[in-house]
Automatic annotation (TrEMBL):
Superkingdom in the source lineage: Bacteria
CDD domains in alphabetical order: Fur_like (cd07153)
Originating species: Kitasatospora arboriphila
Pfam families on file: FUR (PF01475)
InterPro entries: FUR, Fur_C, WH-like_DNA-bd_sf, WH_DNA-bd_sf
Family: Belongs to the Fur family.
SUPFAM superfamilies, sorted: Winged helix' DNA-binding domain
PANTHER family reported in the protein's UniProt record: HYDROGEN PEROXIDE SENSITIVE REPRESSOR, ZINC UPTAKE REGULATION PROTEIN
Keywords: DNA-binding, Repressor, Transcription, Transcription regulation, Zinc
Transcription regulation found in the keyword field: yes
Protein's recorded name: Fur family transcriptional regulator
DNA-binding among keywords: yes
Length: 138
């Protein structure tokens, strides 16, 4: 469960009506929205909110570490409020639905030392692909 608004309140982040609109759009589970989608939904709550404000607010939330910037399709970046629980993504090739998933075991440990080329690992991002139940034939 994402509790973005609660976390932001806890940090004493000044919740203007504009910031609140952006944070409310990003509240919830399995939320992965592009900046344009965040803007469209924020406008529904606060018609005067500008694209620039939405972009700036997203940038701030990313630097605070309260939302993640993820790229699951190699195109538009998506914003993910599930920033405090390590997870990977399961993406539907049909409709683009993205689910947060936690594979068993540590994805970092899955890379044998012979395959690390002397790197010190700092993270691993895995994107699983497939068809969701709605997009599966039959
Ligand atoms: Zn689908
Ligand atoms: Zn996610």
């Amino acid at each position: 469960m994402s509790d973005l608004l609660e976390r932001l309140r806890g940090r004493g982040w000044r919740l203007t009506s504009q910031r609140r609109a952006v944070a409310e759009v990003l509240e919830g589970d399995h939320v992965h929205l592009t900046a344009d989608e965040v803007h469209a939904r924020a406008v529904a709550r606060l018609p005067e909110i500008s694209r620039a404000t939405v972009y700036n607010t997203l940038g701030e939330l990313v630097s605070l570490g309260e939302i993640l910037e993820v790229s699951t399709d190699g195109r538009a970046k998506r914003y993910d409020p599930n920033a405090h629980r390590a997870h990977q993504h399961l993406v539907c090739s049909g409709c683009g639905t993205v689910r947060d998933v936690r594979p068993e075991g540590d994805p970092m440990a899955a890379l044998p030392s012979a395959e690390r080329f002397g790197f010190t690992l700092t993270g691993a991002e895995i994107t699983y692909r497939g068809l969701c139940p709605d997009c599966s034939p039959g």
